[in-house]
């Protein structure tokens, strides 16, 4: 039997995997667990079993679970309907997931939607709430890089507006599924190639589809290395995104919340544009957001 | 035994398939054949066998074959080195492919390269040559839509400069391999959605990655249909390309050479921008270009 006896359990359950933390009431992490069964692989009645399989040895009596992410989507454990902007990052009204185990109470945090331009987030709202819990009265713009990068305008503790860019998914799909897969390294980095590409893309963002093919042609004709081509592709895509997101970041306080590698690329690119940004580690902030939701539930 | 007795054989051998035409000396098509063995599937010593398997019953004595396309790449039957711009669409110096059969002479048309910005074409040069053979003293811009769309500036019977856009491959890979695959129909069309997207992309081309995600969000929140989303994706990508290619097409005579469906989209999009373009059927033009190469060889 486990010697971890949490007061509650925090869960971040996304499309492709799940992370859970055994928590004290005050928000200290006691233990951590993971599963590679994401929402995408589970039917509605399989979530409870997977949760118990992953964290069952933390549970020896009544237990509160607070979860965020795609677990709350229509295809998830329970649909937690979107709140509409402007709204607090943690809107009222957690959804209760259906469970068999009488000791278990599972609360799911709603996502946030915006009607015009149409946009949705699910999971990022909890990171924003965690960031705001740690940075009281912070106004500015939060960038959350990932498969679908979000730019979020925050003011007076509310999410005012946001915009999602498919940049991360474009990078992955272009790298894996187009003719450029022959020209791109799967790892390695070239700072100069990245910086030059960011600046070119900012200056003439419409040339993206032409510059993509030039990665191939520069490899064939000018010996562009596969590592430089990879950094250049990243710079072209992030540069085009920054050109479009300029109304968000220009003249604003900026925080970048995400995995360290991709976050550093955004911070570096913003620095080239004379826009200093603070880099924030994602998983600690997610736990802080789940803790804020738990404390409101219990308060 | 076949009753077709051509004077020569024209071949367009691309990455994914091959087309061949039994030809009279004057350029009349007597018969046609196809193979689904493209350059991508064949080792160097397999091309001759595949050619004979496909058109062997047209051959009863010495036979000249003129071929264009990826068959002339480094991974093809024989490398036909690129000519450099500015140059005629049919540069001098056909490459001779190695053959076992003493009756067979196979000539491969070189591609064209440009050093700065780096770019290459292979196959399109033959279509351009065919178009110019039928339209003497034509100056202007030729657009060749496809997986990798080319814009080519032609003057005084020479290719002056060109630029390749990965638009077609982006459309295919985004449709098949990203989250948008859930939001896009695989066929069907919506003219208004296409036109609006072209105009939006022309006006703010840098917003591409954000507009892509909006196809998903508009489906979730605003009931955007999968058919409209497909037409909108095409419009966004073609619109961004036309924004970047504007220095090519603005104020120029324009010919669009390609398959009829995709060519019509480019002609429609150019019409929205008050740039009338002539649509030209691709395969007849390819045969005309191969014929021009044959006649020069024999002349």
Would you give the CATH topology of the largest domain in chain A?
A: Nucleotidyltransferase, domain 5
Largest interface: A-B, 43 and 43 residues
CATH architecture of the largest domain in chain A: 2-Layer Sandwich
Supply the number of helical segments of chain A: 9
Q: Percent helix among the residues of chain A?
A: 25-40%
Oligomeric category: homodimer
- CATH superfamily heading of the largest domain in chain A: 2-keto-3-deoxy-galactonokinase, C-terminal domain
Radius of gyration of chain A: 21 Å
Task: Walk me through what this model shows.
The structure is a homodimer of 299-residue chains. Chain A is α/β, with parallel strands linked by helices and 299 residues long. The first copy, chain A, has two domains: 1-114, 2-keto-3-deoxy-galactonokinase, substrate binding domain (Nucleotidyltransferase, domain 5), CATH 3.30.420.300; 123-285, Nucleotidyltransferase, domain 5 (2-Layer Sandwich). Helices cover 37% and strands 24% of the residues of chain A. Chain A contains nine helices and 15 strands. A six-stranded mixed β-sheet of chain A has the order 3-2-1-4-8-7, with helices on both faces. A six-stranded mixed β-sheet of chain A has the order 6-13-12-11-14-15, sandwiched between helices. In chain A, β9 and β10 form a beta hairpin. The radius of gyration of chain A is 21 Å and the shape is globular. The mean pLDDT of chain A is 95. Chains A and B meet through β13, α3, α5 and α6 of A and β13, α3, α5 and α6 of B.
